[in-house]
Write a structure and sequence with these properties.
278 residues, Metallo-beta-lactamase, Chain A, 7-stranded mixed beta sheet, 10 helices, binds zinc ion
Length: 278
């Protein structure tokens, strides 16, 4: 009834200290650690996920853009952008990827859903000027203006037409998640609050009969980090981030769940094999 496909839209590299923050270190100390860290992780995928449901196709996140590697695209005044390296070829952007799959972005998607407004999730928005775009209201509120620009967002690069449908998680609870925002009338696809990586971050839950897909965005960078309850190095709210990891684990303990973070090199394989979190 529900099918999920992983779509890789280029690669991201980050410091090891960003992928997992040091235990016992506060949020500011962890950011200093990222600047001091000489070690980069191997290139990680930038994943979007396509969910097919009888009511339509839903795309979760839009990846980044090839323009990210063009001089002047990233604001030079923010040194944090030098701690991350994005490599996207033009044909790897989400628009061409969907067309390679025989899909017309304008005609064949019921909605584009954003887990949060970081640049490597919004960089492909230009491909969707005619689509319904859904995002968490609480995260949007901290992603615009100068504040957003200092926090990994590029609102100055968003398409000028962008007017996302901003949603609150005031729908029915799902397992350990106190609220949700249903995307389909049967509630099988829904956003759930997973704050911590950033304020107002959401994950997308897609419940099929035999298995549930937990499209985690950046709520965790990897299933290994989730299992070990390791929070990332960029979170401003470590308590919220850890509570989110525990909630995802509790959710996955209640039902067979395939966990799909946006930057986990193993997400696509787990999805293909329907390997559930255990
Ligand atoms: Zn992010």
């Amino acid at each position: 009834m529900i099918k999920v496909t992983a779509i890789e839209t280029g690669k991201a590299r980050m410091k090891t200290a960003q992928r997992a923050g040091r235990e016992g270190r506060g949020a500011i100390g962890r950011k200093i650690d990222i600047f001091r860290d000489p070690d980069w992780v191997d290139p990680l995928p930038i994943l979007c996920f396509l969910i097919e449901h009888p009511e339509g196709r839903f795309l979760v996140d839009t990846g980044d853009t090839w323009r990210n590697s063009e001089p002047g695209y990233l604001p030079g005044w923010n040194p944090f952008y030098r701690q991350v390296s994005i490599r996207v070829a033009p044909q790897e952007e989400i628009g061409p990827r969907l067309r390679d799959m025989g899909l017309d972005p304008a005609r064949d998607l019921a909605a584009v859903v954003l887990t949060h407004f970081h640049h490597d999730h919004t960089g492909g928005l230009d491909h969707f000027p005619h689509n319904r775009i859904v995002g968490p209201r609480e995260n949007y509120a901290v992603s615009t203006g100068i504040k957003g620009m200092t926090m990994g967002c590029l609102p100055q690069r968003w398409p000028i037409w962008l007017k996302p449908e901003l949603v609150a998680m005031d729908g029915p609870p799902i397992g350990p998640f106190a609220g949700s925002f249903p995307l389909t009338s049967d509630g099988r696809i829904a956003l759930a609050p997973t704050p911590g990586h950033v304020t107002g971050h959401c994950s997308v839950i897609a419940r099929d009969d035999d298995v549930t897909y937990f499209i985690a965005g950046d709520a965790t960078y990897s299933q290994d980090n989730l299992r070990a309850e390791r929070t990332d190095g960029v979170s401003n709210d470590l308590a919220a981030a850890r509570a989110t990891l525990r909630a995802i684990k509790a959710f996955a303990a209640e039902r067979p769940t395939v966990v799909l973070p946006a930057h986990d090199p193993d997400s696509a394989r787990r999805l293909a094999e329907k390997e559930v979190f255990a």
